[in-house]
Amino acid sequence: ITYAVPNSCDTNFLIHPITVLGTNAGTIIGADTICVGDTVHFSDSIAGGTWTTSNFSVVTISPSGIVSALGAGSASIAYTVAGICGSDTASFHVFVRSSASCYSESIQEKFKLANLEVFPNPGNGSFTISLKPNGGYIDREIQITITNTFGQNVKEFNSLPGKETNVQLNVPGGVYFIIATAQGGEKTIRKVIII
User: Fold this and answer.
1) How far apart are CA 24 and CA 159, in angstroms?
2) What is the pLDDT of residue 107?
3) Rounded-to-integer distance, Cα 195 and Cα 173, Å
4) What is the pLDDT of residues 116-144, one digit of tens each?
């Protein structure tokens, strides 16, 4: 604040600084990708705020920050802190994967992945799939299925072990799964990220 007093010679000024304190909602800490059925705890670096969600059909959040994933999709989690100088809101985007896609990823622990390579990964939708021979499947066709995180097929074709196949996907950026299925039923899964 500046206060000016004019006189016959000049003007005298009195300056007094004032600091305006704003309200800060801090930073939300939590998982940005979860599966349907998961319950995870979110927190914030500032205490005393309230939690809300933009999409109750995808996630709910308790007053203490417990997020429950109800359906596949996306939602924004908001944390609002109110103070004497107004309020501030921090937001955090959460993606909830379907049970089917989460199950598909968990299969990776069950099957050996040494015979399926994807490169470049991450990529822009144009990538190469390389199938390495694996025991008795050297001369047999392998079915390749590419799915999105909702378990929907986006591409399907057959290939042979030892062959490299160039693939072009015209799909939105995100996480996709490449599933190689041999005639005997053995499966190999790789995750590919399209940016």
Assistant:
1) 55
2) 46
3) 5
4) 888 898 889 999 988 776 554 455 678 89
> How do beta strands 39-41 and 66-69 pair?
antiparallel
**Own/partner long-range contacts of 124-128 (Cβ < 8 Å, ≥24 apart):** 124/194, 124/195, 125/168, 125/169, 125/170, 125/171, 125/194, 126/166, 126/167, 126/168, 126/169, 127/166, 127/167, 127/169, 127/192, 128/164, 128/165, 128/166, 128/167
What tokens appear for 165 in the block?
């196949």
| Contact yes or no for 185/149 (Cβ under 8 A) | no
Q: What is the pLDDT of residues 167-192, one digit of tens each?
A: 999 998 888 988 888 766 677 888 88
- What is d(CA 181, CA 183) in angstroms, rounded to the nearest whole number? 7
31-42 residue pLDDT tens: 888 888 888 899
CA-wise closest residue to 184 among 140, 132, 122: 140
50 pLDDT exceeds 90?
Answer: yes
- Prediction pTM value: 0.46
C-alpha span between 148 and 153 (Å, rounded)? 7
CA–CA separation, 180 vs 182, rounded Å? Answer: 7
Between CA 133 and CA 106 the distance in angstroms is 23
